[in-house]
Structures are given as structure tokens and as C-alpha cells.
Amino acid sequence: MSKVILNLQLACDKANGLPEKIDFIRWLQGALLLFRDDYESEVTIRLVNKKEIHKLNITYCGKNRPTNVLSFKFESPLKEINFPFLGDLVICRQIVESEAQKQKKKIKAHWAHIVIHGSLHLLGYNHLLEKEAIVMESLEKKIMQKLGYPDPYLKDKNF
């Protein structure tokens, strides 16, 4: 049976206007179902402000700026045991909302894209090289389409 266990932590200024927990679960499932239809996975999503994500980005990525999402993949010390915990996503609400507005995207579609993007990082995908970015963007588009959202890489479209 397929199951996503979500630990949703709110560490941002206000909770109103955020997607519902069921939305986050649906977006996580969208990414996971692309790879297998029988799974149990646990993910923590922490919604933070710019100050917190900036500090985390400096500490863990060496980048002195805030970002929209950081992914922390769980690495089991016991390789022979299959843990359901995938890892943590830390998402900056202010940046997600600002990006959606600047890019003229519907806020819910942009939230979905950010969660899917972060989930793919937890599953081992990256975009450091152009070849990797092409693969990852292709997967993001496919998942977004399956969930009924438009291509997140279309420029200046109001969706």
C-alpha cells in the first residue's frame, strides 16, 4: 500500500494562506508515484522565513543568500535496513510567494513545483550539470502534468 507520512512544521510568520497539509501530501505522492506505486515514505516539510533559510543555506550549502527550498536527504548509517524516511524539505514561504507573483504563476501551482523539485532532490536527482538539469526538469514537468498543473518552466504565463 502506498503511503506518505508528512511531518509539517510551521516556522513562518503566519499560517493563513498556506496550502493544506493534504496538498503537500498529494505533491509528494506525485513525485514518489513516478518511481514506484508501492511505497511508504516519511518526509518533514518545514516552512520558514527568509532569515532561517538564509542561515541554513550558508551553513549547509555555503551560499550567502536565501533560497526557495533546501533538501536534506536522509542517509541511513545502516545500509542493509530500508528506512521509510526520505528526508527534510525546508521551504521559504516568502520566496515561494514572491517568485509566483514575479513569474505570474498561480501560487498553488508554484507551491506544487517547489515541493516536487525538493522531493526529486530527496530521491537523488540534482541539477548541478546541464545534463542533470534537463533530466530533472523533464521529471518535474511530467509530475506537474500528472497532477493537473502546467509546465513550470513556461515563461510569463498566467497559470
UniProtKB/TrEMBL annotation:
Chief location of this protein within or outside the cell: cytoplasm
UniProt superkingdom: Bacteria
Cofactor annotation: Zn(2+)
Family membership: Belongs to the endoribonuclease YbeY family.
Name of protein: Endoribonuclease YbeY
Cellular component, GO annotation: cytoplasm
Co-factor note (free text): Binds 1 zinc ion.
GO process annotations (BP): rRNA processing
Species name: Candidatus Mikella endobia
A single MF term (Gene Ontology): zinc ion binding
Keywords: Cytoplasm, Endonuclease, Hydrolase, Metal-binding, Nuclease, Ribosome biogenesis, rRNA processing, Zinc
